[in-house]
Specification:
139 residues, mainly beta
Length: 139
């Protein structure tokens, strides 16, 4: 992992707009059946607004579809994938008080691989925070 960007959607609190500090690392291994990859990535980002440092870690699984196989194999005809075959759970740790609430959330995400001619492949995740929903009434 060489470049990490973390940007919250407008209205999300705490707001974060952060870039990687240094180089992160990721550990990826295939399941024995060759149909999925297991993901375990780590990185450190610095928030532009607060200057706070945030450690992030995500684990997940990606289906090795024919489209992803083309990307991983460096096929010049590879195209970007859609969301729906890669899912993660992300954790945040920080000493910055204004970002501390990130540590309290459970975040899950769906990912895709973005291919643009002449550029490195980008992995993009859209995260959602799990929140309490309405309580179902007893039948």
């Amino acid at each position: 992992m060489t470049n990490i960007l973390v940007r919250s959607e407008p209205g999300f609190s705490p707001s974060i707009d952060a870039e990687s500090v240094g180089v992160g690392n990721d550990y990826i291994h295939n399941d024995p059946n060759g149909k999925q990859m297991r993901l375990n990535a780590h990185g450190v980002v610095k928030d532009k607004g607060t200057g706070g440092i945030v450690y992030l870690n995500y684990t997940g699984i990606a289906n090795i579809t024919p489209e992803l196989g083309m990307i991983l194999g460096g096929d010049p005809n590879a195209k970007s994938t859609e969301f729906g075959d890669s899912f993660i759970e992300m954790r945040f740790e920080t000493g910055e008080d204004k970002l501390k609430d990130l540590e309290l959330g459970v975040f899950v995400g769906a990912g895709r691989f973005v291919v643009e001619q002449g550029k490195p492949v980008v992995v993009e995740y859209k995260l959602s925070k799990a929140v309490k929903g309405p309580v179902a009434e007893k039948a």
